[in-house]
Design a protein that fits this description.
This protein is an alpha+beta fold and 133 residues long. It is 24% helix and 44% strand. It has one domain: Alpha-D-Glucose-1,6-Bisphosphate, Chain A, domain 4 (2-Layer Sandwich). The radius of gyration is 14 Å and the shape is globular.
């Protein structure tokens, strides 16, 4: 099973980052604008449209305010397993880190997904402007 790890430092308080992460239906507006162009809620899922035109249904598995951790999964014909966890951790005065881990199968798609996560990180840093500096 492939695992993709992102540890993203952000120069904003953890509470601000968590507020954007936990806003499950506003991914395209608050967390990764430009990388995600549309996001609509459908029960406990969000239908996400990416800038490259692909669409994914992401099921909310857990949203834990105390741990500032959100888990979602994708189940479709291309992915046998896809589970992602996003956790926000305070990292000093007014700073935070966003930890994003994806476990997935098949391994053959890992390079593509990893490339997509690099683009998502760039969008995330732009959403919190001081992060890109």
């Amino acid at each position: 099973m492939a695992s993709i790890h992102n540890d993203i430092p952000l120069p904003v308080p953890a509470r601000d980052v968590w507020d954007a992460v936990r806003d499950f239906g506003a991914l395209h507006q608050r967390l990764v604008p430009g990388f995600v162009t549309a996001c609509t809620l459908d029960g406990d899922a969000r239908i996400v449209t990416f800038a490259n035109g692909s669409v994914a249904r992401e099921e909310l598995i857990d949203c834990n305010d105390a741990r500032q951790r959100l888990v979602y999964a994708i189940n479709n014909e291309r992915l046998r397993h896809y589970s992602a966890a996003v956790q926000v951790i305070a990292d000093g005065d007014g700073k935070s880190r966003l930890l994003w881990t994806i476990d997935m199968l098949p391994n053959e798609l890992a390079a593509y997904v990893e490339g997509q996560t690099r683009e998502a990180v760039i969008a995330l840093q732009k959403a919190f402007p001081a992060a890109a500096a």
